Amino acid sequence: MAKASKNRNIDSGVRGTFSGRLYIDKSIFFKRKDVQKAIESLKNSDVIKKHLETAS
């Protein structure tokens, strides 16, 4: 007898309407680990910090 595969559907936080428009469910999207890592890397980026210093 074959094992049943564990198929986990990970909620990405991207939703769609019946008319085909896509939108972000912010409460789900920003809890994702990959999104949190991307935001942290942007916050700690030297290039972004230098740009903000020269812009202000």
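Above is the first protein from milestone M3; the second protein from the same milestone is given next.
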Amino acid sequence: MNNIFNINRFGKLIKQQYQLSGKNLVLALSSIFIVYTAILLLFTFNNSSIETLEWLPFFIILNTVIALPFAAYAFPAFRTKEKTFDYLLLPCSVAEKFTLNIIIRILAPWIVLPTIFYISSHLASELAQWHNPALKIESFSLSTILGQINHDDLRIAIPSIILSALIHQSVLFAGATVFKKQPLIKTLVAIGIVASVIIFYFYIIIEWADIYQNGKMPWFAIIENKESAIHCLLGLEIVLLTTTWAYAFFKVKEKEIA
């Protein structure tokens, strides 16, 4: 087990990576905070009244625009042969290197970015109201927004939204293990090609094969109720996420073996 994953060795890997890119990380987070605050200041100064729910589009768009490309540039050492060689020689297992990248590139953004957004939105609200006390601005509160949604819908939507976000990140994350140069663009092109093939396939079986004639239905279209549809969707998302992570892991393993 120690050869696969050792917590002490993993801790040293985290320390080593922080020493290499700690300054860049602080600079990046500072830049994100400044951009968030500038955009939200424009939003608050141009509106005399803002309700809590109106912050949500900014929350989703800003965080997604950063989180997805960030995942696409995982394993930055793979961009050049020299850095790849140095990275593979680190005295850590593939599982440890892979886990660190999963944490940093996929999971951490959904903790760090919402936190930055929360601080930036409250700062923007305070500055706008300080400049013009007549403004009626409700501060951003994710718990308040979620509280306005039906609990049954929330129970269904949250797992699906989380899994969907992780899948999108993970596909781009896997692309970073395949493409050395411009992994984001090349992965998006590859996804577009695959999506086109799938759409064309379903177009053929629906339009040309006439599978709906005489009341016939394909197996994937026969869903008994809403609950079954939700379970099928969640199951499919879990399979896709697991498959994507497994593919990325073995691509990293392949580089070490090669």
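Note on the second protein: The CA atoms of residues 71 and 106 lie 6 Å apart.
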